[in-house]
């Protein structure tokens, strides 16, 4: 087998593996966190705003594709990521519901002894007690974003701004986790494996964006993501040994 023949076999194989990793690699960091929440029934160490950032970013990226075509694997990645983030929201909401079921009888007993009544859990934006509320918000956001995008798809400035908003929102996905760790002065409950996979995935996809000449918004925001990932790793070492 000649060197030319080896290259003709390896290059398509490497390209195929790269495409598969681009499509599915983005969800790998969330598998250990999903398993941890599922097994412990506790999602306190995971920020649901990470899911919010990725859900909004990938919805915007899908509409960006309709306005300005880019590689299909990046479009497929968005649909895979949407499914993964909905699964993360679902398991987190289920764990919070289970925590409330355990806590309310105890609170109810103490309040009944003083003649009080059990209050309903506090809510707020992106902190709803049921999965359907999250789904309704995302459907509304998609409808509004879709209408605006198709109405302004002929404006190059809007199209470029839409692409920037999509990838910049994704680039900031780790900021809520960084903030949560900083406020708690702890990384307890956060999967370090998730952050490690974030970093390796961001390194790979940023290199992919550069090599495949993706729109500049993609690789610039990829560099920003890598910086935030490294900052979270710094928190892991800074808060090492501290109790939750």
UniProtKB/TrEMBL annotation:
The protein's matches in Pfam families, at most eight in alphabetical order, are given as:
PQ-loop (PF04193)
Give the primary localization class. Answer: membrane
For this UniProt record, the keywords arranged alphabetically read as follows: Membrane, Repeat, Transmembrane, Transmembrane helix
Any single biological process term in GO: retrograde transport, endosome to Golgi
Task: Please give the coiled-coil regions recorded for this protein.
Answer: none
UniProt subcellular location: Membrane
Q: How does it sit in the membrane?
A: Multi-pass membrane protein
* GO cellular component labels: cytosol; endosome; membrane; trans-Golgi network
Transmembrane feature ranges: 13-34, 46-66, 72-91, 134-152, 217-239
Supply the name of the protein: Solute carrier family 66 member 2
């Amino acid at each position: 087998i000649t060197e030319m023949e080896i290259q003709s076999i390896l290059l398509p194989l490497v390209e195929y593996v790269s495409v598969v990793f681009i499509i599915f690699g983005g969800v790998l960091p969330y598998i250990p966190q999903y398993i941890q929440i599922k097994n412990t029934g506790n999602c306190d160490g995971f920020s649901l705003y990470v899911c919010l950032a990725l859900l909004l970013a990938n919805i915007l990226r899908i509409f960006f594709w309709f306005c300005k075509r880019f590689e299909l694997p990046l479009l497929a990645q968005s649909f895979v990521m949407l499914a993964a983030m909905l699964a993360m929201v679902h398991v987190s909401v289920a764990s919070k519901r289970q925590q409330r079921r355990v806590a309310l009888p105890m609170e109810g007993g103490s309040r009944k002894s003083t003649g009080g009544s059990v209050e309903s859990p506090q809510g707020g934006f992106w902190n709803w007690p049921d999965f359907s509320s999250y789904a309704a918000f995302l459907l509304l956001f998609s409808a509004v974003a879709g209408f605006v995008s198709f109405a302004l798809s002929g404006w190059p400035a809007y199209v470029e701004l839409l692409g920037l908003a999509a990838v910049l929102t994704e680039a900031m996905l780790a900021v809520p986790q960084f903030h949560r760790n900083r406020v708690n002065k702890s990384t307890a409950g956060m999967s370090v494996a998730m952050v490690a996979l974030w970093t390796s995935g961001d390194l790979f996809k940023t290199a992919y964006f550069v090599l495949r000449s993706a729109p500049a918004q993609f690789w610039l925001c990829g560099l920003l993501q890598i910086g935030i990932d490294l900052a979270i790793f710094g928190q892991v070492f800074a808060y090492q040994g501290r109790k939750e």
